[in-house]
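S2.1 Query sequence (NUDIX domain-containing protein)
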Amino acid sequence: MFTFIDENGYKVVLRFDQGPFEIEPRHVLALVQHQGKWLCAVHRVRGVEFPGGKQEEGETLLQAAAREVYEETQVHIKDVEWFAYYVVHTETPFCKAVFTAKVEDIEAFVGEYETAGRLWLTTDELLHHPNLSFYMRDAGMKKMLQEVNRDEERWND
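Output structure tokens follow.
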């Protein structure tokens, strides 16, 4: 378990297991790497971040992860695997499930849909990008990147 305070002053608890959960996950985040680069969405307000969002009625967390990645980046993913989860202790606490995945297919990004575009960034570029969203700058994201990079063989395309 890894605990930190985010930029908004909220306690965040990050775990690399599959529960039990203090709060059931209803949000997803996807860490997708392809040819040594991370897939990021460019959110119009928040900035550069990993794709993710809210689980919709009737879908599993895995389905939500695949849908959100596609909606935000026009990238289809495969080999989606549970990686971690974190609870943000806001006034109304919420839990986000984190998945890793590989690229199945990349479609052309045509116009703006949910985001202003996609970026492919190396880990170094990601850690030092000047327009990262607030959650991409926190200690939890650095910890997740550290943990996911321990298993480099997983990312060999």
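The mean pLDDT is 91. The longest strand covers residues 75-88.
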